[in-house]
Amino acid sequence: MIRIDAPAIRRLTAALAIAIGAALAGFAFGQASPGDKPRSPEATAIKKLLEQRFEGVSIGNISKTPYFGLYEVQFDDQLVYTDAKVTYILVGSIYDAATKKNLTEARQREYSRVSFDSLPLDLAFKRVKGNGARKLAIFSDPDCPYCARLEQELKGIDNVTIYTFLYPIDQLHPDAARKSKMIWCALDPVQAWNQFFESRALPKNNGDCDNPVAATRELGQKMRVTATPTLVFADGTVIPGALPAPQIEAEIVQGEAEAKRLATKK
């Protein structure tokens, strides 16, 4: 998995006295975070202290956790923990010792959900596999080796409609934008995409047709997509990385079920 520069993480690690574990990447787009509600007086006080001590950071939802008396804080692109007086900041994951469940990761997944239905799918090319009943969106870069690995894994996934957003990472792959435009401008972008990953052959055009690469770049930045590939499942769960086929299948099943549950709840 390839990550783009993460200034929020650098600011935290430089400023905090305690840094435990790895920071969790996240992004928000099109729907409110869970627990998004008026802040309690305690949460308001914590927000004020954080803004005083960490100038320029974005403070999102703040809520009391059931463990250690800590508060959970959306701190820029991360989920961190602090005490009521903001004496300490904990960066890392909290696990349930009985179930071995990563509680931080579970909460981060809730916070980072997007509204799948709000994605501008006209900016993506569509592949239908089998009956296409399920859905998956992917931000991908033609020169990203992990995207190539993901394409191999996707061969084992059926009955899904895949929307691929061409998201070249210019800092790492200077030629990826040109290739993305050429693939989009092909008579059959799906065939061109598949052929490129099979043989590295590009379609015979100059990539000068009306294409969505610039718009997709803006979309990804708005969603804070910081890795390619990045997968978006039906319930809005966002996971970066070239997942193995069994995990992709499991996430699709879970995402479809959760999307139905959320629709019923609405």
Report on this model:
The chain is α+β, with helices and mostly antiparallel strands and 266 residues long. It folds into 2 domains: 2-111, Disulphide bond isomerase, DsbC/G, N-terminal (Nuclear Transport Factor 2, Chain: A, Roll), CATH 3.10.450.70; 116-265, Glutaredoxin, CATH 3.40.30.10. It contains 8 helices and 11 strands. The strands form 3 sheets. It has a 5-stranded mixed sheet. It has a 4-stranded antiparallel sheet with strand order 2-3-4-5, sandwiched between helices. Strands 1-9 form a two-stranded antiparallel ribbon. Strand 4 (78-82) and strand 5 (89-91) form a beta hairpin. The longest helix has 21 residues, at 245-265. Mean pLDDT is 85; it is low at 2-36.
